[in-house]
């Protein structure tokens, strides 16, 4: 009686025929820059998003002088290639950028890198602080606060408030503010408000997920945290709607003069990339009043879920 297959044969007696051996080519894990001006970027979240949706949205909000290409190179990981260095710098200057209210992290890609070696963990943000006591030296205070973030990229004083641009480590919780101690031993709390703040957890303060998806918070604790969250929408800075509206009406200069007279610092307005540089070079101008209404509603985002 004939036996099927290899029955009755020992393992050392089996030899593979040519037809029983194939060679597979494994997809390269290397990410190669496409041209001189390339960025690598990732969406900071555990959720997986459709690559085509990401590409379509970025193409709709970035108004570059020349064309750019977007290539998916991994889960929530993309390479963006520009034809000009100016366009690359404009995109970097416009950070932070959001996709579906999730933060996009960027870095320049100048040489081939293995995907598992790519680490994107920081992003620049504008933080609004104040008001301050009259005896505070705002320049010294801005410097001192910036040092706690690893340095100040840019800063400006707007009346009794200040803005500073710093790099946030997205692996750490958001900071709600800082205590300032003065000579008499008293401490004063200076709150932080972040411009263009993405989705964050009201429980642990981390970017990239909501309270409902937090792995650090036990389900039984959710309701208690919702009643008195340690982190809240108080961390979100209001958008400067006057600056945006001035673009729509094509009267930016006039509007800025009015704004500057209110804060008493006309020269400071030249350094507002989060309002002026993005709007003039990157974001399409609003076409009707509904645009402003939508943006206002978005800032007043309901508590998660």
From TrEMBL:
Domain CCHC-type: 201-216
PROSITE patterns: ZF_CCHC
InterPro entries: At4g02000-like, DUF4283, Zn_knuckle_CX2CX4HX4C, Znf_CCHC
Region (Disordered): 263-305
Key words of the record: Metal-binding, Zinc, Zinc-finger
Keyword Repressor: no
GO MF term set: nucleic acid binding; zinc ion binding
Source organism, top-level taxon: Eukaryota
Name this protein carries in UniProt: CCHC-type domain-containing protein
Organism: Gossypium hirsutum
Origin organism lineage: Eukaryota, Viridiplantae, Streptophyta, Embryophyta, Tracheophyta
């Amino acid at each position: 009686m004939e036996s099927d297959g290899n029955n009755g044969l020992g393992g050392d007696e089996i030899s593979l025929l040519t037809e029983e051996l194939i060679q597979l080519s494994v997809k390269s894990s290397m990410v190669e820059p496409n041209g001189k001006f390339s960025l690598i970027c990732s969406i900071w979240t555990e959720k997986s998003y459709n690559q085509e949706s990401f590409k379509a949205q970025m193409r709709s909000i970035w108004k570059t002088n020349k064309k750019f290409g977007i290539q998916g190179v991994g889960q929530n990981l993309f390479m963006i290639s520009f034809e000009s260095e100016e366009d690359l710098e404009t995109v970097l200057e416009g950070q932070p950028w959001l996709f579906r209210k999730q933060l996009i992290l960027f870095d320049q890609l100048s040489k081939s890198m293995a995907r598992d070696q790519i680490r994107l963990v920081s992003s620049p943000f504008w933080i609004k602080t104040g008001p301050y006591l009259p005896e505070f030296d705002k320049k010294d205070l801005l410097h001192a606060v910036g040092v706690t973030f690893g340095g100040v990229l840019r800063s400006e004083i707007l009346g009794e408030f200040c803005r500073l641009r710093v790099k946030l480590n997205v692996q750490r919780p958001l900071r709600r503010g800082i205590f300032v101690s003065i000579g008499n031993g008293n401490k004063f709390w200076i709150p932080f408000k972040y411009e263009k703040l993405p989705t964050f957890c009201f429980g642990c303060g981390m970017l990239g997920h909501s309270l409902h998806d937090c792995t650090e918070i036990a389900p039984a604790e959710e309701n208690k945290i919702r009643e008195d969250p340690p982190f809240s929408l108080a961390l979100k800075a209001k958008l400067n709607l006057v600056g945006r509206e001035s673009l729509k009406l094509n009267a930016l200069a006039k509007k800025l003069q009015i704004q500057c007279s209110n804060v008493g610092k006309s020269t400071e307005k030249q350094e507002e990339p989060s309002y002026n540089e993005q709007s003039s070079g990157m974001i399409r101008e609003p076409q009707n009043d509904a645009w402003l209404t939508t943006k206002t509603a978005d800032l007043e985002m309901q508590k998660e879920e």
